[in-house]
Structures are given as structure tokens and as C-alpha cells.
UniProtKB/TrEMBL annotation:
Name the record gives this protein: Uncharacterized protein
Source species, domain of life: Eukaryota
Database matches in PANTHER family: C2H2-TYPE DOMAIN-CONTAINING PROTEIN, IMMUNODEFICIENCY LENTIVIRAL MATRIX N-TERMINAL DOMAIN-CONTAINING PROTEIN-RELATED
């Protein structure tokens, strides 16, 4: 894990921001991660395999800007039929997201997220 995470220091990316659901047959991690040294990661740096039926994705990404998280870092597969995405994203505005911040798979048919997420207002994660 350390050999994969350390090259991200020079790449202006947090340590392991979006480890996917399954990383199988991971060989030659050092040689694969080496080219990332010194590179800038732009928009959508680590979106997982499928993000299906995403509603108001723009609202989610724009809210992440002030939450000190790059746009859509760590959305793993699948995120299906997400409802009330704006309400979920607004909660993240005042929060600091730390090491290994990501959405765990699967997050399907999520309803009522506002009531669950409100206690997280202002809480460092």
C-alpha cells in the first residue's frame, strides 16, 4: 500500500483517495505508480467503473469544492438511483474530509439522507 500511495505525494493527490471495490492481481504496483510522480490530476481523477442514474451530479461536485475535496474524488461503483443529492452535498460544505475519503459501494436507492447526514455538519471526517 505504501508503494502505491507515496507517488501520489508529488501528484498533488491525497493518499489513496479512491480505492475501488476490488483490486485483483495487483502486480508491479511500483512501476504502474511511478509515472504519476509530478503529474497534476484534473477534473474527475478517480471515478469508479459505473455511476448510474446520477441526479444533480453538478450540485454534488460544486459543493465538494469548498469541502477541500477535489471534484468527485473517490466515487466508487455503483452509485445507483441517488436521490436528494443536493441535500447530501450541502452537508459536506463545512466538513473536512481526511485520509481515505470515499463513497463505499453500493450506495443504491438512498432516501432520507438529510436526516442521517445532519449530525455531520461541521464535523471533521
Amino acid at each position: 500500500v505504501a508503494t502505491e500511495a507515496l507517488p501520489t505525494v508529488g501528484a498533488l493527490e491525497r493518499f489513496l483517495p479512491s480505492v475501488g471495490t476490488t483490486v485483483t492481481d495487483e502486480g508491479r504496483a511500483v512501476t504502474e505508480a511511478g509515472p504519476a510522480l509530478g503529474t497534476l490530476v484534473g477534473l474527475l481523477p478517480s471515478v469508479g467503473a459505473t455511476v448510474l442514474d446520477e441526479v444533480r451530479a453538478l450540485a454534488e461536485t460544486l459543493s465538494a469544492v469548498r469541502a477541500q475535496v477535489r471534484l468527485l474524488t473517490g466515487v466508487d461503483a455503483p452509485v445507483d438511483d441517488q436521490l436528494r443529492a443536493l441535500a447530501e452535498a450541502l452537508v459536506a460544505v463545512g466538513t473536512l474530509v481526511g485520509l481515505l475519503a470515499r463513497v463505499e459501494p453500493p450506495v443504491g436507492n438512498e432516501v432520507g439522507a438529510v436526516a442521517e447526514a445532519l449530525p455531520a455538519l461541521g464535523a471533521p471526517v
